[in-house]
Structure formats: C-alpha cells, structure tokens
Amino acid sequence: MSINALGRTEHGIGLSTGISVHWAWLAGGFVMAFALPFLLADVLAIDRDAFYGILAVATLALFLAWARSTGYELGRAVRRRWVLALGLGVATASLLAVIVVRTEDATVHPDGVELVGAVLWRGVVYGATDGLLLSVYPILVVFAAFAGSRLNDRLAGKVVIGAMALIASLAMTAIYHTGYSDFRSTKVVQPLQGDAVWSVPTLVTLNPVGAPLAHVGLHVSAVLHSYETDTFLPPHE
Questions:
Q1: Chain-wide mean pLDDT for the chain?
Q2: 2 in any annotated domain
Q3: Among 5, 30, 34, 219, which residue is least crowded by beta carbons within 10 Å?
Q4: Is residue 39, in this structure, part of any structural domain at all?
C-alpha cells in the first residue's frame, strides 16, 4: 500500500499521521469511556435518560474530532462494503435479540407513546452510541494507525491488526462497563462476550455502520422484552 504526497492511503482509510497520534486518541477514548459512567451515573446518579444524551453527544464528538484531526475519510468508510456491513449488522442484531429473549426474564414495560420514546431513545440512540463507542471507534482507530504500515500489506498482517483491533474493542467495553458500580465484578464478562459478537460487522468490513446497527438490535430487544433488566441498559438502579 503506497502513500501519496498528502499522506493518504490508496484505499482512503485515513491519513498516515503516525501510530502514536492514533494511540493517543484511543487512550483518550478509554478515559472518556470510564469517566462518563463513573462520574455521571455512579457518583452523581443523574437521570438515566439524561445520561444517555450526554454520552451520545460526547461519543459522537470524540469520533468526529478524531476523524477530522487525522484526516480519516468517514464518507468513504461508510460506503466501504456497505451491503455486507448492513447484512452482517442485521444478522448480528437478530442474533443478539435472540440472546436477550433467551437469557433475560420478560418484564413489564410502558405502553403507548412512552414505549415508543423508550425504543427510540434507549434502544436506537443509546444502542447506536454504545456501538460507536465500544466497537467502531477502537476498531477504526487501530486500523487507521496501521493504514500506511508494511503490516497492512499482507493478509497475515491484516489478521494481526484485526486481532489488535478486537482487543482494543474488548478493552473499551471492559473500561466502559466498570464505570458502572454493578459491573465491577464477574458480571463484566457478559458485555465482553457480547462485544465479540456485536463487533463483527465493523471488524470484517471496516464500515462504521454495522456494529451500531447490531447494538441497536440488542437494546431495542432489551427495551421490549426486559425493560427492567439488570444486565442490559445500564445504569441500573
């Protein structure tokens, strides 16, 4: 893979701005992922839906700031293998929905407009936010860090990068969930297992759409089936 005078890779994945720059952004993401749930949900115990809004804005701002500062081409990334990304996203969302139904007891949930609002806010918005923060951001940052390296020239090297990206996603998931008091236990294993599933669409395609779509399926299923869940939709009362 060659890099032109502007430093852009042939595939348009992003700018070769130096591995250290991307690692710095990843580290900043780790800090934010822990600090927001710890300070807002655990220490201050603000309203759950207000927390989701702050998390969504902060996550989107982090992702866009990284893309802008490093020259990552988001438009091109969204078009990258988009059919496969959508297909994998829908398939993974369906699998996660089945997991929710089979592992969680059904609970009562609100009706009417309140239920629609919960599906849109806690299911779609919060689900997409989690997918972006826990999977898309760490995976794309790691691949962008190695976009202009020799390691990315061979299939074996791409597999190594993919393994590193998955590890980064698992680390983000662990750090984020330990921001919530009830996940500072063996309970954190559950979202780590889920991460290995919902990260697949973006890990395989490097398209930022797949993982959020899969995560939306998880959250919408939790809202509809287990509204009072103590596993999904943290923070839990």
A1: 89
A2: no
A3: 5
A4: yes
- What pLDDT does residue 212 have? 97
Q: How many domains does the chain have?
A: 1
Question: Domain range holding 157?
Answer: 19-225
- DSSP assignment of the chain, as one string? --B-TT-BBTT-S-B---HHHHHHHHHHHHHHHHHHIIIIIIIS---HHHHHHHHHHHHHHHHHHHHHHHT--HHHHHHTTHHHHHHHHHHHHHHHHHHHHHHS-------HHHHHHHIIIIIIIHHHHHHIIIIIHHHHHHHHHTTTSGGGGSHHHHHHHHHHHHHHHHHHHHHHHTTSGGGSSGGGHHHHHHHHHHTHHHHHH--TTHHHHHHHHHHHHHHHH-TT-SSSSSSP-
Phi and psi at residue 28, to the nearest 5°: -60, -35
pTM, to two decimals: 0.88
Does the pLDDT of residue 197 top 50, yes or no? yes
Whether 231 is covered by a domain: the verdict is no
- 230 found inside a domain: no
Question: 101 is written with which tokens?
Answer: 């139904």
